[in-house]
Write a structure and sequence with these properties.
Order of helices and strands: HHHHHHH
Number of helices: 7
Helix content: over 70%
InterPro entries: DUF4126, MFS_trans_sf
Number of domains: 1
Organism: Christiangramia antarctica
Keywords: Membrane, Transmembrane, Transmembrane helix
Pfam families: DUF4126
Shape: globular
Protein name: DUF4126 domain-containing protein
Distance between the termini: 58 Å
């Protein structure tokens, strides 16, 4: 019973959270990785098998390359941030929903997907967008390539970790959210001091 709970619920949940967090950094990296995994035999439910077919694989691969490249172009990266949060939220929800195949009720599956997957992706995407805006304001956009490079690395590492050992991806996500929270508190504290 315990082993069944882990394999049917906990591991898929960890995988979904890891991929959703990755979508917060780069929308298409985890989607392409899931498509690639499904193409090579990763088990998805029948209605999501199309994710691994050639058209989906090629489309998501091209979208991934374009997204990564575009984030290295000054000012275009800020423009992308204006649509990244809603897109990341949708991608995070989808990724979590697709991976939670062991949940019996579709309503519970998608409510969990929206809250945990979409929420995680939105938090990370919103925070990175704020970080890029701060980088643009302080460096005129010149330092943004470092932010973009870090985000791409984070998305790739989280995605790979999610597939190799999903519980570790969950730990990474919790650490990232905690660090973002500490950073937010620090920035908020500075703003309060400036106002007083």
């Amino acid at each position: 019973m315990g082993g069944e709970l882990v394999s049917n619920y906990f591991i898929p949940f960890c995988l979904g959270i890891g991929l959703a967090a990755s979508a917060g950094f780069r929308v298409f990296v985890p989607l392409f990785a899931l498509s690639l995994a499904a193409h090579f035999g990763f088990d998805l439910s029948d209605k999501w098998e199309w994710v691994g077919n050639w058209p989906a694989l090629i489309t998501l691969g091209i979208a991934t390359i374009i997204e990564i490249g575009a984030y290295f172009i000054p000012w275009i990266d800020n423009l992308l941030d204006s649509i990244a949060v809603p897109l990341a939220t949708i991608a995070g929800t989808l990724l979590m929903g697709i991976t939670l195949t062991g949940v019996d009720s579709e309503i519970i599956q998608w409510v969990l997907a929206i809250i945990t997957g979409g929420g995680t992706a939105a938090i990370i995407s919103g925070t990175t967008a704020s970080g890029r805006a701060a980088s643009t304001a302080t460096t005129g956009g010149i330092g943004n390539f470092l932010v973009s490079g870090g985000e791409t690395v984070a998305a790739s590492v989280l995605t790979i970790t999610s597939f190799i050992w999903a519980p570790l991806a969950l730990v990474f996500v919790l650490i990232i959210i905690f660090l973002f929270y500490k950073l937010w508190k620090k920035i908020s504290g500075r703003r309060k001091k400036v106002r007083t």
